[in-house]
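[Protein data]
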Amino acid sequence: TLKTVSNNTYKNDSYKTNNTQQQQYYQTFQGKITKNNIFNINKTLPIFSQPLRILDSMDISINLSLPIVLGLTFLISAITKLASIDDFHVFIYSLNILDLNYSMIFTQAIIGVELSIGILFLSRTYLKTISYFAIGLTILFSIFIFYLEIINSTEDCHCFGTAIQLSNTASTLKNIAIILMAIFTLFNTDN
């Protein structure tokens, strides 16, 4: 049975129970009632044209693309640091936080962790756990950038090795974007 929604729009109530794939949506028809009380359908609106369905499909595409964007970001960061590992090592050592051996171990560990996070995001494996790790690591990187600001370091943070030079402000904005994407991924995934 068709139910009047507006002058020329009708909803099919049985559509919800008859369609098992799209149980939460109704199919919408547009047409006119003739003098004989016969409904002539001029147009059937596809399900994806309904506003709620558009938002739902956007949510699906965002859920699919965010892990890819996060994975590529961490992967590119690791690869560019690996390509200029000597410069990254010298930069960490020049901060006088770690001695020579520990700074080398630290730089290799950072590259390994970023590489692992990138691969796991791209493979969509353990998305919740990896999102937590990504958020934590990015917060640590943000604290490091804040430390660079405190000591008035003129060098960039080597977030992407020497391949891409970012100011501390740009690095902070990048980190905020990564954290927001990871939070969104965290709350919109099942595994």
Summary: Residues 51-83 form the longest helix (33 residues).
